[in-house]
Amino acid sequence: MYTERVMEEFTNPKNVGELVDADGVGEVGNPACGDIMRIYLKVEEDRITDVRFRTFGCAAAIASSSMATRMVRGMTLSEAWDLSNADVVDALGGLPPAKVHCSVLARDAIRAAINDYRTRQGLPPRETGPCGCCGGAGCGSHPENG
Amino acid sequence: MNDLDHRPVYMDHAATTFMKPEVLAAMAPYFSRYFGNPSSLYRFAGESRQGVEEARGQVGAALRAEPNEIFFCAGGSEADNWAIKGAALANRKSGDHIVTSPIEHHAVLHTCAWLEKQGFSVTYLPVDEFGRVDPGDVEDAITDKTTLVSVMMANNEIGTIQPVAEIGRVAHDHGVLFHTDAVQAVGAVPIDVDTMGIDLLSLSGHKFYGPKGTGALYIRRGTRVENLIHGGAQEQRRRAGTENVPGIVGLGRAIELVTADIEGHNRRIAAMRDRLVRGVLGSIPDARLNGHPIERLANNANFSFRYVEGESILLLLDARGICASTGSACSSASLEPSHVLLAIGLPHEEAHGSLRLTLGDANTEEDVDCVLEVLPEVIGRLRQISPLTPAPARMPEVD
Fold it and tell me: What is the ipTM metric for this complex?
């Protein structure tokens, strides 16, 4: 069901953990949906210098978190914001259709962390798209997205 | 230790079982040697007919029923569909109300939902925290429109065994038919359709070391049930289609084997299961056993592990050669967690973190050792990754 790259990323995830001195923290999903992703960013001069995640969820959720954090490390915040869930899916060699929402969650978690950073810097949060776990239906887990 | 070069540690016998060599041996002659159609008149076909009738006798004996009350079909789902649709439709003049439980297999629940669309009404009984139906609630649910009560004998996910005889008595006291899905119970619970007050009973061959694609419906003599499969005159004109002769022969042999010593079998399996449960609960914090502590199938252990998700558990176990099952949404197409675990009151989060281990004849004490070694590592690793794990319960970071 999963590609070898998904299984590799799931069984040996990178960037697991948290950053106590994070500059931005984003969390999306909720336990009722079966997925929660929390991403910690360290930012220097608009660039992501360190990133960690914690995820509650299936193999695809853990693999997507690991892959997305590996991809945004070293990116500018603008580049990281533009990381699409399709980029994550491609890097994983594909996800089953029912699991694509996990890659959307990873994108959303990164965006939530960036917006948290912006808020802490006194900047207005950027507009985010519809929620990855509820498709904008309103799962109640991210009031910041409306 | 176990890896994929070795035999997997198979602990998913509620999903399906391997077929016993004795069953395969019984079936073998009916593929190419005695291939005749049981409906044909020449003597050659008599061998096939005899194979089918011998199996009918074996199934009847296992249920304490008459052979001519046994009707072969293609599996548990067909038997459930047939029993419920057949009884509801045949008795529609007397009423249009069905009583069932919320923890039935989907073959029952989706059949009931279909009947609701046809204008029937269905009452879903409450269950307690262990998934048990109270016969008193059955009595309260029955109205003068009720024609059928359907409650499973034992649950496929949490293993809880229902007070079937009491439910059967209540149904009969009110002149209502009683169907039970015994797919998980055959070979684990001694069955007597008379003392248990059962009018209709579903069973499935591949759950007790028989072939897949085989099943049977017991229909008490005189019970009004519409046919589901229309066509030829097979199965006393009640289930059309040329008989799956090798499958039926295998089903018969399998049920004979599995009901030969239920008590001894349960004793052996339950001893391993109990050691597994004690070991898991003793070595993994924030874990619980789902289902009834005593009134449960001897081979069933169903756990919930907080802070982690079931599909992840399964895949890490699979990587170590252990086959198990989960009620997590993430392993299903529906993205909804197990209806059974939700019905017994588990919060979504704990339903997502469920793991079902079901033992069977090929399991050994070494298999239990293997699970007891691997499972705490797997849960610990996933808890390391999870944001829900309380910090003190986490090991130091690894990267």
Answer: 0.88
